[in-house]
Write a structure and sequence with these properties.
129 residues, mainly alpha, 63% helix
Length: 129
């Protein structure tokens, strides 16, 4: 399993946990659902402004497409969030030297991620500091 496959697997677990947490309340899409989803996004460090924008877009799309339940909303959320990320034109780690700054709240996994990246590129023969 490749490095990015492992990251994808870890993100899959996070997505699954998010869905389970939100769907414990049932598949109904009502005002409480939207409030809970926005709160969950904020607590997941998406940020208040981004969460508000995501919820606004999702609500609009859910109405236009007449989404039947929370499961359909989560599928659309996944698609919407994936669309906001763009694939880099070049691999930043191919430059010599490379410098990357990781920022985030305590417990977000920065140290673990940096350690995994360091081990991955060390195995490829790169000098890692």
């Amino acid at each position: 399993m490749g490095f990015f496959d492992k990251i994808n697997e870890g993100l899959h677990r996070s997505r699954t946990r998010l869905k389970e947490q939100m769907l414990d309340r049932g598949p109904d899409v009502d005002d409480d659902f939207w409030d809970d989803l926005e709160e969950t996004l904020i607590l997941a460090d998406i940020g208040a402004a981004a969460a508000d924008s995501i919820i606004e877009e999702l609500r609009d799309q859910a109405k236009r497409k007449a989404l039947p339940d929370a499961y359909a909303v989560f599928d659309m959320l996944t698609d919407q969030m994936a669309a906001t990320f763009t694939e880099a034109e070049t691999d930043i780690f191919e430059e010599n030297p490379s410098l990357v700054l990781f920022v985030g709240i305590n417990g977000a996994g920065k140290t673990t991620t940096v350690g995994k990246l360091a081990a991955f590129y060390h195995e490829k023969g790169r000098k890692v500091l």
